[in-house]
Amino acid sequence: MPATPTVPANPLPAPAAPTGHHAPEPAAGGGRLPGFVAVALAVPVGLTAGVLTSFGQTVLPGPLGGLANAVTPWLVVPFVLGALTRRWGWALVAGVLACLGEVAGYYLTSHLRGFGTSSSWVLFWLVCALPGGGVGAVAGWSWRRDGHGDGPSTRRGPGLGGAVLVAAWWAEAVVVYLALLGYVGHAVVFVSAGVLTFVVLGRCGRQHGGIARWLVPALVLAGAGFAVVYP
Questions:
Q1: CB atoms within 10 A of CB 7
Q2: Where do runs of H (alpha helix) occur along 6-118?
Q3: Could you tell me which of 129, 125, 147, 199 has the C-alpha nearest to residue 191?
Q4: Under a CB-based contact definition with an 8 Å cutoff, are residues 144 and 150 in contact?
Q5: For every one of its 231 residues, what pLDDT tens digit does the chain have, with 9 covering 90 and above?
Q6: Which H helix or E strand runs over 227?
Q7: What b/e string do you get for 117-131 counting C-beta neighbours within 10 Å, with b at 16 or more?
Q8: In terms of CB atoms within 10 Å, which end of the chain has fewer, N or C?
C-alpha cells in the first residue's frame, strides 16, 4: 500500500494578500434576470395570474375570496418580476406587460367560463394596468436593490419599495373593503396580508425600519389611488 504522506516540518506560509487591492465585489444586478428574459416572461406569467384569478373567485371561501377580486394581489406579480430584473427600465416594461396580461387572462377566462364581461371595464383595467404594473415592478426592483446591496440605496434611505406593497394591502383594506363596502372580514384578510408582507420584505437586508419610515406617505398615496379607482 502507498506510504502515508507526511506533513512537512516547516510548512510554507500562506501567501499574503496583495496590498492596495480590495476583494472583487459582486456585479450590480447579480442573480437577476436580463431585461429581455423578464419581458419575455411577463405576458405568460400575467396571463396565468389572470386565469387563476378567474377560477379563484369561485373557489376561495368567504373573506378569502377578496384575494381574487382586488387590485393588490395583482400588484404582487409585477413586484416579484421587478425584483428579479436587473435594470429598472426593463422592470417597468415587464411589470406593465404582466399587468396587461393579468387583465387579458382574467377577462378571457371569465368569458370562456360563461360569465358576463363588459368592454368598458376591460378598457378601464387595461388603463389602470399601465401605472399599476410600472409602479409595482419598480417598487420590487428597488426593494431587491436595497436589500441585497446590488446598488446604492435611494438618497432618502432604503425601504420605499417594500413600503409600496405593504401600503397597497392596507390602503385597499381600509378604503375599499372597510369604508366603501363594509366587508370587515375582507379587510382583516388584507390587513393580515400587509403584516405578512411587511415581515417578509423587511427581512431582506433588515429593511423593517426603512419600510416603516416610508409607510405614512406610501399609505396616503395608495389611499388616494384607491379612492380614484373606486369613487
A1: 6
A2: 35-56, 72-83, 88-112
A3: 199
A4: yes
A5: 444 444 444 444 444 444 444 434 344 455 688 999 999 999 999 999 999 999 999 999 999 999 999 999 999 999 999 999 999 999 999 999 999 999 999 999 999 999 988 999 999 999 999 999 999 999 999 999 988 765 554 445 689 999 999 999 999 999 999 999 999 999 999 999 999 999 999 999 899 999 999 999 999 999 999 999 997
A6: helix 208-229
A7: eeeeebeebeebbee
A8: N
Which residue is it, cell 399599476?
132
CA–CA dist 23, 39 (Å, integer): 34
Residue type for 86, please?
Answer: R
CA distances from 132 to 16, 128, 165, 226 (A): 53, 6, 11, 11
Q: Which three cell numbers stand for residue 115?
A: 360569465
- What the block records as the C-alpha cell of 96 is 406593465
Q: Which of 43, 57, 44, 46 has the alpha carbon at shortest distance from 110?
A: 57
Q: Cite the DSSP H helix spans in 113-159.
A: 119-148
**How far is residue 140's CA from residue 95's CA, in Å, rounded to a whole number?**
10
